[in-house]
């Protein structure tokens, strides 16, 4: 199973187009959106290329391949534009290895405030806009960073889970962080 992770699109059409091109090229089966999909939010500037209706229209073409959760900037009005569900605060994904992957945005659950997880389980979240892929205690913490508003000097990035490897990549193909889940 190959999963592609993106977070914090914030309604930016150029970032969404770049993300979907990378997804198409990746060969991943599913696109996991970790929230803050359409709205830029009150604490962020309006991104260049801000066009939530166009972002929704583009993402809707991938609806049957998307797993999405609600971010702190997402609302029921946003859901009205999207043809895939995104109002859940979290989702569980059972991987082929039997490991559980807890998918959330990061404002309710995150690396510091985890749900009950077993040894070897993973939590994937966005919200901080800072990439992470590491074993923390006996669970894996994964954050693909942000495609629109990266922080702490990082480039816009996305994440992948393939061949028991969690990786965060830039759109130029550079690996930012990586860890093995085996």
UniProtKB/TrEMBL annotation:
Needed co-factor(s): a divalent metal cation
Enzyme Commission number, as recorded: 3.1.4.-
One Pfam family cited in the UniProt record for this chain: Metallophos_2
Nucleus found in the keyword field: no
UniProt KW keywords: Metal-binding
Family: Belongs to the metallophosphoesterase superfamily. YfcE family.
PANTHER family associated with the record: VACUOLAR SORTING PROTEIN VPS29
Protein name, as recorded: Phosphoesterase
